[in-house]
Amino acid sequence: MKRTFKTNKMESMIDNFLNQKKISDGIFNVKINEAWKNSVGNKIFKYTKSIYYKNGNLFIQVDNPILKQEIIYSKGAIIKLLNKEIKQELIKKIILK
Q: Which CATH class is domain 39-97?
């Protein structure tokens, strides 16, 4: 029996690995966290308990009630900043917990 091996470029193998659903979601959520930190700054970021993206919605949990109100009032501007930071128009809505 003769074995046949098909060789692939390392770049395509890494792309295939990263494009798996669970891995790409995890990597994207890391990008969202970094974009949030860069957009709002360290002072606001330290009051953020959790942040994740799902189906066009950005879910944010914040400790400070005053900060929560400020985010509610400036949702549109924050969405624009985050979409610009991630270089995609994915975030449609911010949901605060």
A: alpha beta
